[in-house]
């Protein structure tokens, strides 16, 4: 999921913004949803996308580490009342336009978090 965010340690990053992408892998038991073909028994990834984009657009934060932790916390909070239990997640924040002076493709931070 991608959106413009205003994160970084430099003033121009907070002023001008840049694209951030966040990849999320959710860990849950999908068997009840798969057996019944019922969306209410799984974690709705449409809702996930909205949570992630909202977090990218929040802040600003100096560090992508902060963005990663706050996004993970928001995801767990969003799924607190879901019929399916979110057990854990992997989350990667991509900052492909980071202000680095050498050639690079992407800057990322990846975290694994389990339900608090």
Automatic annotation (TrEMBL):
Enzyme Commission number, as recorded: 4.1.2.25
CDD domains (alphabetical): DHNA_DHNTPE
A Pfam family assignment: FolB
UniProt enzyme class: lyase
GO MF term list: dihydroneopterin aldolase activity
InterPro entries reported for this sequence: Dihydroneopterin_aldolase, FolB_dom, GTP-CH-I_C/QueF
GO cellular component: cytoplasm
Catalytic activity: 7,8-dihydroneopterin = 6-hydroxymethyl-7,8-dihydropterin + glycolaldehyde
Domain Dihydroneopterin aldolase/epimerase residue range list: 1-113
GO biological process: folic acid biosynthetic process; tetrahydrofolate biosynthetic process
UniProt-listed SMART domains: FolB
Keyword terms of this UniProt record: Folate biosynthesis, Lyase
Known pathway: Cofactor biosynthesis; tetrahydrofolate biosynthesis; 2-amino-4-hydroxy-6-hydroxymethyl-7,8-dihydropteridine diphosphate from 7,8-dihydroneopterin triphosphate: step 3/4
Function: Catalyzes the conversion of 7,8-dihydroneopterin to 6-hydroxymethyl-7,8-dihydropterin.
Entry similarity comment: Belongs to the DHNA family.
Record's protein name: 7,8-dihydroneopterin aldolase
Species of the source: Neomicrococcus aestuarii
Organismal lineage: Bacteria, Bacillati, Actinomycetota, Actinomycetes, Micrococcales
């Amino acid at each position: 999921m991608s959106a413009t965010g205003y994160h970084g340690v430099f003033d121009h990053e907070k002023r001008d913004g840049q694209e951030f992408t966040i990849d999320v892998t959710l860990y849950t038991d999908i068997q009840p949803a798969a057996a019944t073909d019922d969306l209410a028994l799984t974690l709705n990834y449409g809702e996930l996308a909205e949570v992630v984009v909202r977090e990218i657009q929040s802040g600003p934060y100096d560090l992508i580490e902060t963005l990663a932790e706050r996004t993970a916390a928001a995801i767990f909070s969003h799924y607190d009342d879901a019929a399916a239990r979110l057990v854990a997640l992997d989350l990667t924040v991509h900052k492909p336009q980071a202000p680095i002076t050498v050639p690079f493709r992407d800057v990322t931070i990846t975290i694994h978090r389990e339900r608090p």
